[in-house]
Amino acid sequence: MDSKTPVENLYSIEPALSSSSRRSNFSAHSKSVGRSSIREVSFSDLGPKPVKYGSRGAESETYNMSQKEINDEDARLVQINDPVKTNERFEFAGNSIRTGKYSVLTFLPRNLFEQFHRVAYIYFLVIAVLNQLPQLAVFGRFASILPLAIVLLVTAVKDAYEDYRRHRADKIENNRLASVLVNHEFQQKKWKDIQVGEIIKIHANETIPCDIVLLSTCDPTGVAYVQTINLDGESNLKTRYAKQETLLKIPEKENVSGLIKCEKPNRNIYGFQANMEVDGKRVSLGPSNIILRGCELKNTTWAIGVAVYAGRETKAMLNNSGAPSKRSRLETHMNLEIIFLSLFLTALCTVVSVCAAVWLRRHRDELDYLPFYRRKDFYEEEEDNYNYYGWGLEIVFTFLMSVIVFQIMIPISLYISMELVRVGQAYFMIRDTQMYDEPSDSRFQCRALNINEDLGQIKYVFSDKTGTLTENKMEFQCASVWGVDYNSGKGSSQDQKDGYFVEVDGKILRPKMVVKTDPELLQFARSGKDTKEGSHVHDFFLALAACNTIVPLIVDTPDPTLKLIDYQGESPDEQALVYAAAAYGYMLIERTSGHIVIDIQGERQRFNVLGLHEFDSDRKRMSVILGLPNKSVKVFVKGADTTMFGVTDRSLNTSIIRATEAHLHSYSSIGLRTLVIGMRELSTSEFEEWHSAFEVASNALMGRARLLRKVATNIESNLRILGASGIEDKLQEGVPEAIESLRTAGIKVWVLTGDKQETAISIGYSSKLLTSKMTQIIVNRNSKESCRKSLEDAIIMSKKLTTMSGNTNDTGRTLGASLTPVALIIDGTSLVYILDCELEEMLFELACNCSVVLCCRVAPLQKAGIVALVKKRTSDMTLAIGDGANDVSMIQMADVGVGISGQEGRQAVMASDFAMGQFRFLVTLLLVHGHWNYQRMGYMILYNFYKNAVFVLVLFWYVLFTCFTLSTAINEWSSVLYSVIYTSVPTIVVGILDKDLNRRTLLKYPQLYGAGHREECYNKRLFWITMIDTVWQSAVIFFIPLLAYGGSTIDASSIGDLWTLAVVILVNLHLAMDVICWNWITHAAIWGSIVATVICVIIIDAIPSLVGYWAIFQIARTGLFWLCLLSIIVAALIPRFVVKVLYQFYTPCDVQIAREAEKFQPRSESAAVEVEMNPILNQPRP
Amino acid sequence: MSSNTPSSSAGGVGSADSSAPRRNSKRPKYSKFTQQELPACKPILTPRWVISAFILVSIVFIPIGVVSLFASQDVVEIIDRYETECVPQDFRNNKVSFIQSDANKTCTRRLTVTKRMKQPIYVYYQLDNFYQNHRRYVKSRSDSQLKDNSSWNDVSSCKPEDDSNGQPIVPCGLIAWSLFNDTYNFSLNNQQLAVNKTEISWKSDRDSKFGNDVFPRNFQNGTLIGGKSLDPTVPLSEQEDLIVWMRTAALPTFRKLYGKIERDLQPNEVIHVTLENNYNTYSFNGKKKLVLSTTSWLGGKNDFLGIAYLTVGGLCFFLALSFTVVYLVKPRRLGDPSYLSWNRNPGGQ
């Protein structure tokens, strides 16, 4: 990033306000250095010098990489302002983008190719192809490919529509305009025409058309602010820098030229390596010099840059990939059942072909003359065999033909039905008003469309804390200044209503957020720094206002006299602190590269920022070195208590330190996040020493981050503790109730947080995760052996507690009372030793005994590790919910990942399967939608197996009466339409709309969620029962007409029509019998498809060229037909009905009882439920 | 089956109106449909419903069963199996050679009427073990040729009886080729008993499936004669035996209508049947029967359906009774929360 600024008259300090021209400070001698996470500073006699900012997150490893030369072959060479020469080999993409997958030409082949990735489709394709062989032609050409064609068509239409929308979006995007330098003049050009190497000018609030390297900005120091919300969803402003060497060039006037050598396009949005040759100098470029496509320029009037990556090679486009696809557990189970079905299919086919073999062998002498076989064609010259290929081959053909005839045993329609049902379920989830988050105006989002039903079987919920359980809206609550605790909860004076404001030129400037203040502290703050307390308070708030990286933004309001200050920054804690400082009269007004302006009690003061050591996770603190108006230099430090007390001057004010420590303890025990603020005044020699060290460190080529950290550590020592702040991370609304519900539902909630133990425990209490009845087991060790030991102890203890309750269980009466729930609290350091080694097993055993697990101080990867720990050892479903980038790994690891679209950006949402606005929606999502979806999908799969198997079995029985020759009485069109038209719609409708229980009941009795845990809706037993029922039903369908019409004049087409209608009506009535919730759509679907079937059968039988012409009319005229139909339906359904009634009456499942209660319990009781549930459901949000 | 329970709008209503002021809000629009709260009926199988359903079924089924049985009993059927009897004693060991020989195949049978038979009396022939539903067989026909004179040479699907001597056969295919060719002549008291052989086929077939301008051509001209020859001067739409035959039977045992006797027959009347035993069922051990049968509203003589109805009705009655007993002995209050699993064994969740 960083070019060096010249250092002239280095160490003299001038009052900040005297500077007039900053530009004159620059000269051109710069050397390139790598990225670092430090702001460097230099200053001169003329005033404050610009401060350079590094990008956050740069680590020493990547730093070292940036030192490597980019190999020529791995590099892309960009001639600045010379797109033709840049791209003379036409190897770089233009800036037009195409997110659409297909073009008109490629749609068909590509879409088909993608669809055939499913094994099931291949199966049906193979069968359709087999059917095309003349020897095996069971169905007509067209009829055989129709089902597959319909399935492919439906999917293709869906894909095409989605793609069309993408194309349309692309078109809009490609036709946006940007100013591009053409012939020394900026002209409007469409985005798609922008080429690599061109110079582009971007104005405020414009979107960046491609990845550009900054050349210059309106800011004399080359700073540009960008918002990356489209890229990573973070709404705060990020700073980017133009290089000194190019800063002064004005492309309109002079010929800007140069060469940028950068890496090949890649998808790392946080990394960029390049160097630039301008005017014969080599400058290195880092991620802070590039602005990526999709970002917006903010707070900067204009910026000029050169395009380096365009179109599909931009980092934004390279990152444009969907959520990873997961497969639902139900579907995995279903695949096992499909294997059973295929074995069954094979068995049927084997039976048929063996029988055929025996028959052929027995009649081998007669085949030539049998009137219905006639092997020989006597009219040919040499009496050839006609359509007969020898005994062996005939058997093979019979086998293959039976596969073709019985193909729908494997339900092709199930796949497409499941897809449609999931879309429908997602539609309802998205539109649920109870999962709409008002403040963020966000709906529920279904990002993964294939795991809806998994939501009904979640056993473990892993939750992040900050931003998930809590709002991540930090609120300054109390402060301890100089050993005195000011707790603003005590009183609230009237004048706080509007908060603090200042008036400038008749305009009122007010912070955007109002913070409640403590009157006593406010008094001290107003009293000025004359008193002793006053001066401490002054330093404290000065530290709060200055020691941060917040950028103040002035926002206009409709009222012209009122302006709001919005503090933009990357850390919500810092925002809270700055707002608090503003409320106490220390309002941060302006932050530029070299100075900050703070309005202190109505008086504007300017401070030179001489240096800034950014926060890093090792030091856990940050510091800023300020040149005060009175020419003294102070270093202000703020950081976590663990590291701050280590660097304080213990000899000073021991009592104050102790008091502060006590306050910190009490703050964190009520769940506040604490920060300690310290300060030290620097003498001139100290400052000079630091400055030279800082310069050296910033200029270092190798290990710069490490050196800078060392410099920071040196200066951050012997601090005087000013005080501490307590920031409340407010619990989201409804979280305790939600956790309660989930726990009652039998879901284990584990909280994984980066917070410290006390904070985590206190949040645990306030969210009702922990209760006073629980025994807490705390594991925080820092060696493997001690971890092992404490785990062993903990297991023994938890066992004791659980077996104790077990004993009382046996003796009887006093059941629930003696059950001691155990809570496990474990910290990240212990997890380091436990995860990925043999201790994992012990931890899992322990965790299983505990009803609550709370992990604190865990790193992102450890979160994933914990999820994996559970996932590996149980077959239970896991769900991870989180909102931040640190939760991404956990979200992707869990079976179901839920993202909270909250404050911390959108990475979590991007990685998630479902996204929502609030934690409490999880209750609705799991207990209501999850339960419904699971029940619906489970039933739908079973039903689809059943309905196809019934049909296949009817065909099979008939084959036994046709010499095993696979002829069917049911005509081929009905066979084909069976799963496409006759029976498909009702199952989809029921799969989307059926409700076993009301939303209210499900929320009232969270235990009902256990149905999913116990796999009540889809399991092996149900599958086999259904299959036995299937055999019975198919036998009834087949044999009643067979016996009733036995030895009569009945012809094949007529009895075929009877069978067709019987099967269709039966399977639809079977469904009707199992539907729980009948609304008009269900009625329409079920009765409608019976009517549709009748119409189809009539149409088919009205075609004279088909064999079955008029058969339905002939047979429907007879009473026997109707009596057969009636007896089939009743006889076929009786066993199922009886079993169902007995089961429901004598071993009712919870769902059944609740359903009855829903219907028979007096209304008043359910009204009470409504009241009770209201706080969770729709409490009006503040 | 149950009362309509429009689910009350539990949560949606309360929050529906609060969003009004916000423009372009993404708030989902509230409707009963999107909140899945459409008015719905949720039937529950209460004992009363179950028992009533069973009783209803038995009330419907038992009378139907009785009526069906009676109908079936009313039907008078005379069945005469003749395929063995009509082969001279010498040929009984080698029936196939007899049937393929040119010997006289006339045969006389005596049928005694057991009960009064009301007209019309249907004359059927019944074949056994003849797989008219065999895949090779059912495929071997050309519907377009039968229908339309212009496509008389459309015989591609008719193998192996597609053409003979280089000329297409009309009607082609195995089915037509194997047309049944036994003939029956009935006489009662030495008087010819007229058999009406018109309108024995479906009218729809005569009108739409078999063309009145399609004449048999080159039929049964090959080396192997399968069955009956057709009069080349009569159009196919009037060849009713063929039309009946071409409606291939569903099962290997089947009857085909031969004709109708349009007069009543009294008990103990003796009918003499002179039949030409031409059709070769011997090569596949098929039986041939001549059937004279009256008909009822239910069709022919078949007790199965009546028995089935009585069985199902009786079973349902039995089920209704036993459920009643069971419910009385061991009742359960529906919807009683104390049956919920977590209430039965507290703390056991």
TrEMBL record, chain B:
Region annotated Disordered, chain positions: 1-32, 141-164
Signal peptide: none
Principal cellular location given in the protein's record: membrane
Low complexity: bias regions: 7-19
Skewed-composition ranges (Polar residues): 147-156
Transmembrane segments: 49-71, 307-329
InterPro entries linked: CDC50/LEM3_fam (IPR005045)
Topological category with respect to the lipid bilayer: Multi-pass membrane protein
Intracellular or extracellular location(s): Membrane
GO CC aspect terms: endoplasmic reticulum; Golgi apparatus; plasma membrane
Keywords from the UniProt entry: Membrane, Transmembrane, Transmembrane helix
Family listed: Belongs to the CDC50/LEM3 family.
PANTHER family: CDC50, ISOFORM A, CELL CYCLE CONTROL PROTEIN 50
Protein name: ALA-interacting subunit
